[in-house]
Each structure stands twice: as C-alpha cells, then as structure tokens.
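RNA polymerase sigma factor (Ponticaulis profundi), 173 aa
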Amino acid sequence: MTKGNDQDARYLEASTEYGASLERLAITMEANPARRHDLLQDMHVALWRSLARFDGRCSLRTWVYRVAHNVAASHVAREKRHHSRQVSDDALADMPGGEDLQSAQERSDALAKLHAWIRGLKPEERQIMTLYLEDLDTQTIAEISGLTPGAVSTRISRLKDRLQHAFREDDHA
C-alpha cells in the first residue's frame, strides 16, 4: 500500500469512527451554522493532512482529538480576534435535572443551553469539557491537552461545579 493510500485509509477509518464527535466539537465551539460547517471542514482537512505524519506513537483516537482540538482552538482565537468577543443527548444526564427531561423540546433546549454554556468558557476549559463529555478518560484528555491527569481531574471537577451552579441559577431565575 502506498503512503497516500495508507493516509486515505486511516482518514476513512478516523472519520467513520470519530466523525460524530467532530460534529459535536464543532457545535460546542461555534454557534453560527455557516462558520460551524467551515470549522468542521477545516477539522477534516487538517485531520487528513496530519495522517501523513501519524506514526502510531499514540492511539488514532488521541491523534484525531488532538488535531481537531487544535483546529478548534485556532478557530476560536481567530473568531475572537475578528469579532472581539460537545455533545450528545447522553451528556444531558450530567446536567442538573437532566435525567428528568421529558420531551424532545426540553432535551433540545437543555442541549442548546449546554452548548451555549460551553461556548462561554475559555478555550482551554472548552477543550477539557468537550473531551469529558465525549467520555474520554483523564489520561487521554491529558495527552490531548498537554496537562497532567491530576490537573485534568481538578479542572473537570471545577467545571462540573460551575455548570451545576449555572444551571441552578437559571432554574431559579
């Protein structure tokens, strides 16, 4: 198999396995549908290009998330400069009262609220929260983010507390 074919095969495997995760990441990073679509395309292009250098020193999953989060972080920084200014339904169960959401509309509203909350986080916090909501373990999140597993655990705990507090405030408003 030639190098290009190997790259194509790895991309096909990665996009099939992690495409939905990339879409959820794009949703948590970009509210505007047109810019979100561009971000997702940028993630896929960067992923395909990067797979020419993939040497297997980390798992394909770690590689995909690292590339996608780097693209997303660059996108957020670029949008912030220009405008001055992560998640599946399963993640709703982690929200205060999430397990009680009855209707599709309630779930949709809660998910939109969660995405908006995540978009309001600092980029490094967004990265950790979206990876956590993708059900990655702290070791994998540490590999992707460059933090220690202990730092990741601490940040996840603090972010969950902030999320719970934010949603309780909304419920009482």
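DSSP finds seven helices and no strands in the chain. The first helix runs from residue 3 to 29. ok done for today
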